[in-house]
Amino acid sequence: MRGLFLVAYACSGLAGLIYQVTWTRLLTLYMGQTTAAACTVVTAFMGGLAGGALLGGRFAPRLTPRRALYAYAAVECLVALIALILPLELSALKPVLVWSYRDGAPGLLFPAVRLFSCLIVIFIPALALGATFPLAAHWFVRDPGQVGRAGGVLYAANSTGAALGALAAGFALIPAIGLSGTTSLQADWRSPARCS
Fold this sequence. Notes:
Layout: H1 2-31, H2 35-59, H3 65-92, H4 94-101, H5 109-140, H6 147-190, H7 192-195
Helix pairs in contact: 1-2, 1-3, 1-5, 1-6, 2-5, 3-5, 3-6, 4-5, 5-6
């Protein structure tokens, strides 16, 4: 069971980095092809991961290991659902962006609205992604004397999947099947039925 969980957690890392690359590409359509746009996505993603890890770290010790596993699976399913609806969220933002542009004279309103809306869209799923490690670790680490070793193995599996996800998204998936196809595929990979 623990070996299968490591595979599932590697799938989580794979999907997580595919999300980041895909969301960066999607949001540059709304924010422009600039360094600021890419920085906004990375900031929201990393900030969400940190916030989720903090919240998950406070919540996970209150659960039994079995409930931590169930919570982990629920959070993974939530992230998959959010990934599927994220393009719809971005489409729903178009009227807000049009309103904030105000007939070609946006001033500071347009960049502020664009920045804030993109931060929120990315921060919330990243928050859920960040909560997965403490929940997974609470289930996976059985022996308090082996916290470093078991936690390291878990983190290594996730990081390996993440590295493969970044490569797959940038060099294979997006060029081959586009942004919406990649989004659908990554949500399918995150499915607990596929990974566990």
